[in-house]
Amino acid sequence: MLLHSCKITRTLPCLADPEKIRVIADVSGEIHEVFPYLNATLKRCIYNHPANTLTIKKDGKLFTLHAHHITLAKIEDEKEAEDILGWLRDLINETYEKREQIEPNYSMAAELKALDIYRLLPGTSCKKCGELTCLAFAVKLVGREIEITECNPLFSEKYQEKRIVLLELLNAAGHSIPPIALENGTR
Ligand code: SF4
Known about the structure:
Layout: E1 6-13, E2 21-27, H1 35-41, E3 45-48, E4 53-58, E5 61-65, E6 69-75, H2 78-97, H3 114-118, H4 134-142, H5 160-172, H6 179-185
Antiparallel strand pairs: 1-2, 2-6, 3-4, 4-5, 5-6
Helix pairs in contact: 5-6
Bound molecules: iron/sulfur cluster (SF4).
């Protein structure tokens, strides 16, 4: 067993949704050894090998695993957080037990698709970034030909929720994003 227990250590307001909470739980030991095996078996995750993080997307929520802690966003209450942590503990331990039969996957950027980004952009195709459409911008962003800060409308109050989720995804995938934006959007 790789993960014996997780303990909620902090509960914060969720910036993406003021009616929900953001939960940080410390884990017993180190869990990053299982990340490349989870990356190989889960469909909706982003692995950042150099940063040692794995972000799982499930039911509109984001769970980010670090070597020593787990962050959960858009959570209803501590009961839901405990349920998710229990699910993650089982997933981590079952995957770790089967690791001999799994080819580990250390790649990261391939999981971040242009359409994943497009859904989190304003979607107005206003052309302020110099691209004809938001989809064209998303394609360039995936290819790291343009910076997220070129989309000015995204940094307005109106798109706060989308921005926070998008910045977290980009951060998990190893994209460079402005520190001030990260302060507002991630742990
Ligand atoms: S500035 Fe943002 S909203 Fe406008 S077209 Fe570019 S990506 Fe879309």
